Amino acid sequence: MTWTKQLVIPANLNNWTVRDCLKHWLIPKRIQGQLRQGHRILVNDLPASVATVVHENDQLTLTFIESDFRTPTSNYLPDSAATVQILYQTPDLIVVNKPAGEKAHPNQPGEVGSVLNHLAAYLAPEHQAPYMVHRLDQMTSGAMLVALNPIVVPILDRLISDKSIHRTYYAWVRGHFDQPSGQFTNPIGHHPTDKRKRWIDTPDAQSAVTDYQVIKTGSQHTLVKLDLQTGRTHQLRVHLAANGHPIIGDPLYDSLASGNSRLFLHAIQLLLQLPFSDDFVTVNAPLPAVFDVEPN
């Protein structure tokens, strides 16, 4: 199987080499080398090398093969596309509004019912398939980014790592805050006694930073806006719980959560740099109606 990417050289890359363009677009060095060794680079339909100088409006054609990628194929079983709500889509990626309670991806062979299973069914008529990039916890709702080809998976991974993809959340939490905004900086690691959980200031803790802003104060609870500066497992849930404000309905960190309560955490916005571009887009996931009133 092959994938072809045709790119028009923009003005800001005029007189750059192909190598510099590939580096700018965050294509990994290993894949750059394989494109070069496989003679799979064309400029204006003529064979080219990574040393070829390109000019504005030149057409650069890159052909990728399965061995270029660690995960070249997407093997998620198609499930019903009925629950799929698309927030944004390009030929390279899709942002879906994930429902609360639905897994982001299957954990076992043959498993269905996850966001990626539903997307596999949604994309099948167009002969496309989903590739995992960004995960949301099962009980979290909101904007979730998915790649549509293996070419952009390492690029999106790098953009997430470099904070060029920024995620914003809303959460209803217990209690009130002394300040209208602030920052949690407790390092996060594995919980000392519960393998399912993470906690602050543990022996293996790594740096973690979360910004918060109070949106609405209720009688007993607060609606807060949360911005991740790092991406530790359960970061928002742990930072809030460890600082006395567990997210309402959190089965792991909210001691008052009831068995049938949803987790009041929603990924409301994704600021996204598009692959092979310097353009940014902001994708919003509408706040669920259940967030409009203070939870019990």
From TrEMBL:
<dbReference type="InterPro" id="IPR006224">
    <property type="entry name" value="PsdUridine_synth_RluA-like_CS"/>
</dbReference>
<dbReference type="GO" id="GO:0003723">
    <property type="term" value="F:RNA binding"/>
</dbReference>
<comment type="similarity">
    <text>Belongs to the pseudouridine synthase RluA family.</text>
</comment>
<dbReference type="GO" id="GO:0000455">
    <property type="term" value="P:enzyme-directed rRNA pseudouridine synthesis"/>
</dbReference>
<dbReference type="GO" id="GO:0009982">
    <property type="term" value="F:pseudouridine synthase activity"/>
</dbReference>
<dbReference type="InterPro" id="IPR020103">
    <property type="entry name" value="PsdUridine_synth_cat_dom_sf"/>
</dbReference>
<dbReference type="InterPro" id="IPR006145">
    <property type="entry name" value="PsdUridine_synth_RsuA/RluA"/>
</dbReference>
<dbReference type="InterPro" id="IPR050188">
    <property type="entry name" value="RluA_PseudoU_synthase"/>
</dbReference>
<dbReference type="Pfam" id="PF00849">
    <property type="entry name" value="PseudoU_synth_2"/>
</dbReference>
<feature type="domain" description="Pseudouridine synthase RsuA/RluA-like">
    <location>
        <begin position="92"/>
        <end position="242"/>
    </location>
</feature>
<protein>
    <recommendedName>
        <fullName>RNA pseudouridylate synthase</fullName>
    </recommendedName>
</protein>
<dbReference type="GO" id="GO:0140098">
    <property type="term" value="F:catalytic activity, acting on RNA"/>
</dbReference>
